């Protein structure tokens, strides 16, 4: 009988040999299990291990994709949960906003302001996530610190995972989008005013609001539903 470790080796080899290239979508579980001669349960264990290694990403409603080469070099003992991502963002992004307020050039300030005040009506959760990532990435670029930008990019890549998408698809109502957009505008205004402490405080308030929204969804999850670590379990780092 094929073990999970053997299945993992087969999948690793298929990815490394180019059978499934970077960015490629893997076949559905049933088809993949048949093609590899694996049981569904064994396949799922192997896929979970590959996700922890950063070799694949699961996107809710879309499927499972092979990560690019850079992301595949990341290694985790356990896959970071949405709680882990939010805790790390609370530690990192106020510092990014602080640096951006001090270092952003005029065209970057204009772009940050534009992204904080997008034209058009509300979008679905995927559209909002794209807008949100663009705004936060612009701040990171304006910080003039490539390491901070790289760390934020890594966390944004984790937001493509299935557990994150499941939460955001439930929580990102038009009302919350409006609220978060106001928070983005407050961050952008502080950056434009060169108010570094104010930008950091506005970013911290924004991320705490996002975390509260996600934590409420987890608390209301149906009994027995697989849910990520409770976001309220992360220490509030200020």
UniProtKB/TrEMBL annotation:
It holds the Pfam family GntR. One of its GO terms (molecular function) is DNA-binding transcription factor activity. Residues 219-238 are annotated as: Disordered. Residues 1-69 form the HTH gntR-type domain. CDD domains: WHTH_GntR (cd07377). InterPro entries: GntR_C, TF_FadR/GntR_C, Tscrpt_reg_HTH_GntR, WH-like_DNA-bd_sf, WH_DNA-bd_sf. Keywords: DNA-binding, Transcription, Transcription regulation. PROSITE patterns: HTH_GNTR. This is Transcriptional regulator, GntR family.
């Amino acid at each position: 009988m094929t073990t999970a470790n053997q299945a993992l080796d087969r999948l690793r080899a298929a990815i490394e040999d180019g059978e499934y290239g970077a960015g490629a979508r893997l076949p559905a579980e049933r088809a993949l299990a048949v093609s590899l001669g694996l049981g569904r349960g064994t396949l799922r264990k192997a896929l979970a291990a590959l996700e922890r290694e950063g070799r694949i990403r699961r996107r809710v409603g879309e499927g499972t994709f092979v990560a690019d080469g850079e992301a595949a070099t990341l290694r985790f003992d356990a896959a970071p949960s949405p709680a882990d991502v939010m805790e790390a963002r609370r530690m990192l992004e106020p510092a990014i906003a602080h640096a951006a307020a001090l270092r952003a050039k005029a065209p970057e300030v204009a772009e940050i302001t534009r992204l904080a005040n997008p034209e058009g009506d509300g979008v679905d959760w995927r559209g909002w996530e794209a807008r949100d990532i663009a705004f936060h990435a612009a701040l990171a670029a304006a910080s003039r610190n490539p390491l901070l930008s790289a760390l934020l990019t890594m966390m944004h890549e984790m937001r493509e995972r299935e557990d994150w998408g499941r939460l955001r698809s439930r929580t990102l109502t038009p009302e919350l989008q409006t609220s978060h957009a106001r928070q983005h505008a407050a961050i952008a205004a502080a950056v434009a005013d060169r108010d570094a402490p104010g930008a950091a405080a506005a970013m911290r308030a924004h991320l705490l609001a996002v975390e509260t929204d996600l934590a409420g969804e987890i608390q209301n999850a149906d009994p027995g539903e697989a849910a990520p670590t409770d976001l309220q379990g992360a220490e509030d780092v200020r």
